[in-house]
Amino acid sequence: MPKRQLILKGIAASPGKAKGKAKLFFSGDDSSNFNEGDILVTTITDPTMVQAMIRAAAIITDIGGITSHPAILSREMGIPCVVNTKEATKKIKDNMLINVDGLKGEVYVLD
Amino acid sequence: MSWIKPFSKATFKVFAGQVLEGFQPIDFFHFFPLWHDLWVAKITEIIKKLNLGNKHFKDIKYLLPPPSNIRAILLKLIASYHASSIKNKNEYKLVANFFAKILQESCTNDPFSLTSNPYHSKEEIRDLVQTIPWKEADTTIARKIGQLITAVGSLVHGQYNDVVTDLGWETYGPYQIQHLKQNYTLLIRHFPNLAPKELWPQKYLASAKELIIYALYQDVKWEIYVVGCHTVSKKGNPVTGMKKYAVIADDKTVSQEKMIEFIKESSNKAEAVYQEIKGMDFEQLKLMVMTQECYQLKLLFDKADINWKPTKEMLERIKNKPLLKNIFPHGKFIETADEFMKIFGVKKFAKEVLQEKI
Known about the structure:
The complex is a heterodimer.
Chain A: E1 4-9, E2 11-14, E3 17-24, E4 39-42, H1 50-55, E5 58-61, H2 69-77, E6 81-83, H3 88-91, E7 97-101, E8 106-110
Parallel strand pairs in A: 3-4, 4-5, 5-6
Antiparallel strand pairs in A: 1-8, 2-6, 3-7, 7-8
Chain B: H1 4-15, H2 36-49, H3 57-60, H4 67-83, H5 89-106, H6 122-131, E1 135-136, H7 139-160, H8 165-168, E2 170-179, E3 182-191, E4 211-217, E5 221-224, E6 231-235, E7 242-249, E8 252-253, H9 256-278, H10 282-295, H11 298-303, H12 312-318, H13 337-343, H14 346-352
Antiparallel strand pairs in B: 1-7, 2-3, 3-4, 4-7, 5-6, 7-8
Helix pairs in contact in B: 2-5, 4-5, 7-9
């Protein structure tokens, strides 16, 4: 059983749990590099990211509140979302295996 | 009846836990005060010309933007008054009171959307539910509808920007209803104009102008905060809780296959229009945002036979001008309603414009 370590806490914006590879994705990035089931990690989402958002298993952001763009759309899509972590884009690296708990607002890195 | 205190209590929720940097693609609250006084003056002219102050919402609803859009306009006006050096108080008072009255008449039970957006009467909802071509929902369909809302909502975000989104994206409800002897919660998601040809070329317009998504839920507690796109599921799961749905585009029922096509089309166009926006220079961005802001009241302006587009004077106010600075704090999380009222000038507006103390 992989060990997990809590690395981030934020606002629990959309409930649910997801495990997957983290993908740092920013405004204007090419969504063809974002795979189904990846976990989208960004400062804040915007419409240039919509195709990645639709494929994401979960969304984690540095800023935003309960009524922010990623929070609203995550709830509509039924995927977990944690916003306002302050430093998701600093602490999480590409391809890290992570676990997102959207009910508690917690992000874990898995060994 | 005073509206500003209940308005503030509700509107604070837009900003709770947010920073201003979250609003894109421009620092709106440092932009609008450069010229909003002129737009308020034009709206005053319309209100007087059409005698709108003496008309009930029911008589003019076809000329008005959705209620959530009106709430957003009201907030922007209050903040603009606070930051502007020009204080045309009487005009701000007339316009703000008009919009508040419209909200009180159209969404009587929750005019400022503290927790809901109850635009329809019980009778309207009862009649509507009976005519909707309901289909059974499952988790796959519910997720697809979530993706549809994401794709179309993102297109609207691009077409209208972060603070005019509500002109293109409204959610009505939640309504507690009975259908075929079962209890449900109804949400109506309405995208009234996905083809604003006055703002964008054809390549950024959706193939359907109007999209409506009806959804019946069980065991999900929904709330709506201030504006319709701010739906919050307080309890339950919106995906497993969706029991029936109908998707209507330009008065035609949308099949599952067509829904998938629409998701793809909308998400492609959303990305494309926002890439164009990100490529704009500062002058282009200012002009775009000003035009979008004015577009909100196009129907009213058309009715009054007055050009809705920015006037020469408005354009002069922003051309080659920097934004204002240091009036609204950046990087600061707004934690309380009192903080919100102070920062956005709500107390000042109440005192100076409405002559009320809150």
